[in-house]
Amino acid sequence: MMKNAVSCRDVVVVRGDREVLHGVGFDLRAGSVTGLLGPSGCGKTTLIRAIVGLQARVTGDVSVLGLPAGAPKLRGRIGYVTQEPSVYGDLTVTENLRFFAAVLGVPSSDVERVVEAVDLTSHADARVDQLSGGQRSRASLAAALLGSPELLVLDEPTVGLDPVLRRDLWNLFHQLADAGATLLVSSHVMDEASRCDRLLLMRDGELLADDTPQDLLLSAGTSDIEQAFLTLIDRKAGAR
Amino acid sequence: MTPRVTFAVAARVLAQLRRDHRTVAMLILLPALLVSLMWWMFTDSPMVFDRVGGPLLAVFPSIIMFVVTSVATLRERSSGTLSRLFTMPMGKLDFLLGYALAFALIAVVQALVVVSIALYLLDLDIQGAAWQLGVVAVLDGVLGTALGLFASAFAATEFQAVQMMPAVMIPQILLCGLLVPRDQLPTVLHALSDVLPLSYAVDAVIGVANGNGFTTGTGGDTLVVLGFILAALGLGAATLKRRTA
User: Fold this and answer.
1) Which chain B positions have a beta carbon within 8 Å of A89's beta carbon?
2) What is the pTM of this model?
3) Domain hosting residue A125, numbered range
4) Do A102 and B4 touch (CB under 8 A)?
5) CA B146 to CA B229: how far, in whole Å?
6) Contacts of A87 in chain B (CB under 8 A)
7) ipTM of this predicted complex?
8) Given CB 3.0 to 4.6 Å as the disulfide criterion, which of A147, A205, B9, B245 pairs with A43?
């Protein structure tokens, strides 16, 4: 079995005349849940788009499931959830999922499974634009689960969800990882860090840390991930 | 290209249209209403209506299809659904052909309505066969769709896409032979009109109206329209970018 699902080396991304990622490198171990944390605007979404092969002007090496990012053979093997729910508002949850299932070429029986996984069964026949924001983002997540992709890249999937639902989704993420999937979950909420197997802390287009939550707290000498983040920033500034 | 994906996109676009009654009503009824308006304007000079009525059957459907489809891919880009689809096994041509197929079906209904009303209610006088006029009207609607999809792939925002209508369509309407027969245009403008798709759409309608069937002259113009449709879809697919800034 492949050891690393994603492998990035010296990844630089330029947008307009500005460099937004300045040489990022890390590995995602297959079957793990990794949190990508950092303030809004630090480059999380750009990094995610580079991994799923939608970002222009990427240099360096981004390898996904053993292939260069964006390779045609990867299509359908990656589940991607954008920050804004990417489903059709004028269709029902089931209609949306049936469509994406048809594009993926997975049986439409898979639709029921993913609706259940995100706890939307009671709203399966509701039009997406009549759902709450949280329900809409779960519909979007359900579409990414179709066909059980090997890699799931989720851009802030838990924003605006109530704590019970957030806990349930994190449990789901770990179930998927236990079944062999690799997950990269971005968040700007630091308290989600403890739920991850591994953390990537980002700031201003650079990686500040790549560690387990426990080791990160230990090396920063604190019990609070937000405090650890600040300590790392101070250390980096001191080192300059 | 995968037929399964193309048809899935077409079915989805039609499902969305089914929920949007106002757009469907506009697509199907507006060309007929506009042709009726022209008939009313020329009620005292039916000769004029017989001359412009045919070309209008080409012009109105293509403009209306253009406007609707020119924002289509932009809508999918801004909603993030295009990003999602690009991480799935969907070719760019699947996406555009799916849209073209769905709107071609609308164009068939649109042409049935507008041609029936023009011929049987407004007494538009043509020499050729009614079904050939119908076929040409369908192709002209599909031409508007294909040009709209191409413009849509070209524009970066919906704001830019709506500006495409006056930029792309109005010059074609002026030069297509509706206002001044093309052979009476100044040489340079005539040459220019020779490379514009709508000119051939109108020539085909005029051909049928004058009694030239597909086998006797009008077939060539019809094939040119078909060629423009395929070229616009191909260029649209080439212009659509998976990777964006």
Assistant:
1) 79
2) 0.93
3) 78-148
4) yes
5) 6
6) 81
7) 0.92
8) A205
